[in-house]
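Final paragraph of the annual report: two paired records, presented back to back.
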Amino acid sequence: MQVPVASRLAHTGEYYFSRKLRELTALNAAGANIINLGIGSPDLPPHPSVTAALAASAAQPHAHGYQGYQGTPALRGAMAEFYQRHYGVALDPASEILPLLGSKEGLMHVAMTFLEAGDAVLIPNPGYPTYRAVAEISGAEVREYDLTAATGWLPDLDALAASDLSRVKLMLVNYPHMPTGTAADVAFLTRLVAFAQAHGILLVHDNPYGFILNETPPLSLLAVPGAREVAMELNSLSKSHNLAGWRVGMLCGRADLVATVLRFKSNMDSGMFLPVQQAAVAALALGEQWFWELNATYRFRRALVLALLRALGCEPAAGQVGLFVWAAVPAEYADGYALSDAVLAGARVFLTPGGIFGSNGRSYVRASLCQPESVLCEALARVRKWRNASHASATLGMTA
């Protein structure tokens, strides 16, 4: 029997990395031994105190039942203390924080809570593909705002203000930005809040990358005066604490907005596993030494990835923040897809084509830092060997 697919999925395909991982798995099963530099899933373990807290909690007989939809008071308190300590933002743990099963889940909750047919939502181009997906599934009209190297990968707020914003209800923003690694400063975030206030737009700020390779103190949009009236912020322990598979995130903002999102979320899950919550409390209590050691590893890895991209003739921008390196492809390739395909076929290394993040990313590729140094050294050696062989072949062809 053919079952018609709901119209809400008419424009939403399977997530790119879901399809690509199947392809890479098939290649590896055939003996290709692909090095995957595509996905930002931290390969490093959590701090030992975090796994110890998980194990200790899981050993308790009472720990395995359903949990409250708002998380434990201890977890919300730890999240509030984390925001105060690192961002200087005071949040009421009882009403202004909603723990999530990952911030990706929160994006869907926010979209389904506030968006419907007839509404419009602003999403970045390039940007995280899930932004478009959640907007489409909600039934809202997707309106892209351009981010380009010429504007420093920041939106032109004046151009947006001059456009018809009458039906725009939400604007999704993400700084430090993925995929470009751009960090926004306080001056820009202040202008962003003023823009939202002037046009009655709810800002949804996705903020999971501020602690990775950031040479300045991490920023929260909620620290900007007036932001709480027009903004909510998503955050995550996936990257900052190596807990990607544990699914621990949070939604922060004004109490009435958080309570409204809870109306939707409470119908979607039955709470977070208690041992994970108690382990997250331990993670959130980690001090600056944790981040220093984490970034020391990523700094060394970034040097290897930069060498690999430059061996391909790519041009990485300076000052990038986060788990990736974003780089312009050389003129010999039509776009990032062409370079990605060539490197996969020739060097058995996978780089993410920038076009999956939007049309403004087509001339770029993105490489992840989430592989051990030994693997990155092997990837660099493969790329150099392939490029040298390609250049030698081209030289022979010219002289033949």
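The closing record of the year follows.
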Amino acid sequence: MRARPVQQESLRSRILDRISDFAASTPARFAVIVFASLIGIFTILFSLPVATTSGERAPFVDALFTAVSVICVTGLSTVDMATYWSPLGHVFVFVGVEIGGIGVLTVASILGLVISRRLGLRQKLLAAGDANPLRIRKGPVSESQAVRLGETRSLLATVAISVLVIEAVVAALLFPRMLLEGVPPLDAAWQSVYIAAMSFTNTGFLPTSEGLIPYGSDWWFLIVLMLSVAFGAIGFPVIYVLRKTWRHPLRWSLHVKLTLVTFGLLTLGGAIAYFILEFDNPATMAGLGADQRILQSFFISQMARSGGFATLDMGSLDGSSLLVTDMLMFIGGGSASTAGGIKVTTLAILFLAAFAEARGVDDMEAYRRRIPQDVLRLAVSVVLWGATTVAVATVAILLITDDVPIDYILFDVISAFATCGLSTGFTAATSDGAQYVLAATMFLGRIGTVTLAAALAASTRRQLFRRPEERPIVG
């Protein structure tokens, strides 16, 4: 009579051990499987009749697309998010973006820490896989980086605390402004918490059909949103270092310095570009004063990096502004952040490599530190995988779509890949086939091109010989 529970417990332990071993040995594949499983679960949830305001079952393409957009914290949608989903559906959206924004492996590690009150090596490796893409492959990893493996427990605490604190502060700052707008207190409380989560996770969903129209020129509201998006986009490793040493910039790691400097330059450069390119556009900024042009330029520049909120019609932007937005979205935010894209440090590494080549030196250097060549190879791989994903998705949609300008298609494809959420209106109006392609693009963009490559390559092979060297002509 007593043997059966023991056998069940033994079987459960073996299954858990197998899962734990698989997660620790191949965290990249584990991340892909968990992301795909979560998308499947939320697709089922959004397919429930109680998830829609009409009480009818949502079409499969809408349920799947919403689930992918939520878990991948993208912000693109095929339906009017504010009116199509019921209050329970919005709860599903809220929970999904929190899980997806923080990171699946990080959430799993935090839950394990809360339950067991300790963090073993396997859990540290899982969390480190979210914090540093260099760890997704087997083999030694240099610890001279933003967060060392021994600091993983502190990083997890920083993640959990920063999510709660930043979102609470943002909600508290937005709440009184909504009351001044005439929003009832209970609605204002829910909307402020909802928007705080959507801004920090860089998702961009809004709980009301009018969106940001009531606050489209409000300095307070838009600046709070920009700061919330920026904190989510710089990355948890950067927040961790700033929390410990914000008074001592000289002690910041190279990763933190590259992230903050590149992030700031791209935001400023994007704002200047929008200010100039949209200055005389009657559909966007031509009728605005100088102060509003500056505000809107910085807001678009920040949101184009992954935020997804918009105060102007993206489809009305000048073609040159659409191209600038494409570039900003493709770059995205910081590593191990709620933002997407190839990441700002990837761009910084490529520019440092080009600068070193122009100077005729072998080593990439920045802030009196030498950057190893394997980081450059990883950066090149990220850009190539990202460009390939965008190109294939764009060609696939062009084949099944008629009479749509290619710049609109490319815009929404890059937005899907970079999990940005800005749209020209193409995503909601296109066919089911194109929406499936965009959903796949969102998935590939969120799990990360490097993670996908490592998941497909079973493990890193060490070659025990070197072939003869020969230099092809380049350039």
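The radius of gyration is 23 Å. This concludes the annual technical report; the extension proposal builds directly on these records.
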